[in-house]
Every structure is written in structure tokens, then in C-alpha cells.
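We emphasize that the prediction below concerns an isolated chain of 173 residues; any contacts that depend on oligomerization or on bound cofactors are therefore not represented. The input was used exactly as deposited, without trimming of termini.
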Amino acid sequence: MSETLTLDLAGIVRESIVDGPGIRFVVFCQGCPHNCEGCHNPATHAFGAGKETSVERILEEFDKDPLLDGVTLSGGEPFCQPVPMAAIARGVKERGKNVFAFTGFTYEELVKKAQSGDGTQELLDLCDMIVDGRFVLAERDLSLRFRGSRNQRILDMQKTREAGVPVLAEEYM
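Result of the prediction step, given as a C-alpha cell string:
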């Protein structure tokens, strides 16, 4: 009998048009080490304060809406739960949909984190786009698409993988 893969879930939004391109199913994980001043989701900072939820259950909920373009992984910090988040991303990709993720880590920090073998590399490999970097209140800009502060980047992950360096998703910058 196999063990059910779970994540510490803060909540979901079934349909969003502000958390990435198209209609998104947004998974908010619980737990974030960054504690950015002015964070949009401060209730998601405490580790272990969410609801343990199976990856299977999240994918079942995703499947209920045929209008979805993909999933957005948010938080909290998705890369603090890379194994279950990668399982969600894999399931979404198997359904022919795309994966957009928000992270307070920079891409460069994630590449270093991936060297530990904690599942970060698989999650990076499954993402189509990533918004990276901590939210910086002094650089807050409400006119930015899908970002909260000017220091954050939207990375085209296929182009980033091909180039071996971060490549901006120009259509969203």
C-alpha cells in the first residue's frame, strides 16, 4: 500500500485571472521563510498552520473545471514543499495544462537549493513560468502584471532551461 502524498495547504482559489495568464486554479501552500514586509498573504507564513491535504484531492478539484488554463502555485512558499508541489504540477502537465509559480526565492537561489536533492529541481523543470524574488515594499508597483514589486521577475522557464540563465517572459514585463 502506497503512502498518500500530502501538502500543508493554506487554501485554494478555483478560478483566478490575476494569478497568472488565463483562468487559473491557485494552490496556496502554508509556510514561508521570507516574511516580506507588506506581503499579500501574511497568514500563510507560519509553517504547519494549514490543512494537510492530499495531492490527489487537489487534482480532483482541478479536474472539475474544464475552463482552466492551468495551475498557479503560490503561498506561502511553494519551494518549501517541492515534492507535493511537483506532484501537483506533474498532474496538471499530464492534463495538458500549464504551471505558473510564485516564489520569494530568486531563480539563482532555487538552482542552489536544487543541489540538495529536495525536489526543487523537479518542480523547476515542471514550471512554465515563475515569478521570482521577494516582495519589496519600497519597490511596490500596482501597475505591474502578476508581480507586486519592481525587483520581481517573470521568467519563461522553457527559455531559461534552454539558455541556462534566467530569461524574462517579455510578454508580461
